[in-house]
Amino acid sequence: MTRFRLLTHLNTPQGQKALGHTGYIDGPSSRYFPGDDLAGRFVRALAERRAVPMKEVLESFEFFAAVRREVRRETVLDLCAGHGLVGVLFALYERSVERVCLVDWRPPESRKKVLEAAASVAPWVRDKIELMDHKIEQLDTRMPKQACVVSVHACGQRTDQCIELALESGGTLAVMPCCRSKRKSICSPAVALHLGHDLAIDIDRTYRMEAGGLHVRWASVPEVITPQNRVLVGKPRLTDGGPQPSVPAQQSALE
Ligand SMILES: C[S@@+](CC[C@H](N)C(=O)[O-])C[C@H]1O[C@@H](n2cnc3c(N)ncnc32)[C@H](O)[C@@H]1O
Fold first, then answer.
1. Quick check: CB of 105 below 6 Å from ligand 1?
2. Residue whose CA is closest, atom 19 of ligand 1?
3. ∠ CA 66-60-233 to the nearest 5 degrees?
4. Whose CA is closest to atom 9 on ligand 1?
């Protein structure tokens, strides 16, 4: 059975049926989220607006649940944010997060619906969100220091750009890569031959993150949600070599 970390009510045979819903989350499919908790109310608000497909809901919640404790910082940048659901979850759940920048040069229609849905159940989200409708390349000279960079399925080398921006910021990082260009990506041909290109490229990214001063951990979201499910999580190493403590747990609205 697929174990959900945040949407725990789906950890039942009945709840697992949500995984079989391939389309947009809508009125009928919102029955999988009957609870009166924040997650239930938010997902039903998304469903009322037919904001995003079910897959995007499950993927974003699970990515957030897998990395939130380690990476949360006062400022969060969701790069190549698309619908912005991951950034919005930081604004919604994490009290210690004061500012969430959704960066996307061509934000889809769904982003407006996601923001409306979030504001309808958690009005505090509105004050935290900053929309940056431009290319991530334009952040080059104005990355906030010690920020948290998150990015889900930023295509190809965009993930590498996100890593570089996070290293420049000196904060934390969590990326879930998707497509990887064999031609453009850097990786060892020997490693690629034996482990496959995708894995070899993520290994190279890991070394890059470590060389940039991060303590790196690999995490994942359930493969049944997306086969592109590897998550690279990085946080600054302390000078004594140990990983840096993140924001204390009591600063979360919900754990
Ligand atoms: C595959 S979508 C992922 C969206 C979202 N993170 C998700 O999980 O669904 C990639 C997004 O990156 C955006 N994008 C592509 N190149 C970009 C760039 N150079 N700067 C900012 N956004 C970019 C696209 O507009 C698109 O919304």
1. yes
2. 135
3. 35
4. 82
